[in-house]
């Protein structure tokens, strides 16, 4: 869900001419369409991330920033995620994999630490490799966030593949 973030517009301004953004909220999408009506390369759609209405292999890049975190918001223990949350995450990631072109890239930006998030991403069925990096300003008191990059058509490392079997 793009929410009311300026990220889509920022990407457009950085030279990405064709950006499609989705959100579950019709009111949000209507507001974003109005706000950025002057940018014809920005497209907005009301859509559920669990059932994307795009054809297979539509996108070179899929970017999510905190959207997947919503699937875990009701979990009481990050070490023991419910079957429902695991299934919801798998469903969304399967949809992302489906709409990515071969060689395409899925980028996920989140506060979720690798030991919590990598098992979800490291599923052989998605057909992608997995890398991650911690980001932040280095201040010991600051929150770090994590960047996960999955490349469609590249294999998982054996250590990542093993993580995916934990779920």
UniProtKB/TrEMBL annotation:
The keyword Transferase applies. CDD domains: AdoMet_MTases (cd02440). GO terms for molecular function: S-adenosylmethionine-dependent methyltransferase activity. Pfam families: Methyltransf_11. Residues 1-107 form the Methyltransferase type domain. The keyword Transferase applies. GO terms for biological process: methylation. It comes from the Eukaryota. Keywords: Methyltransferase, Transferase. PANTHER family: EEF1A LYSINE METHYLTRANSFERASE 4, SAM-DEPENDENT METHYLTRANSFERASE SUPERFAMILY PROTEIN. Belongs to the methyltransferase superfamily. This is EFMT4 methyltransferase. The lineage of its organism: Eukaryota, Metazoa, Chordata, Craniata, Vertebrata.
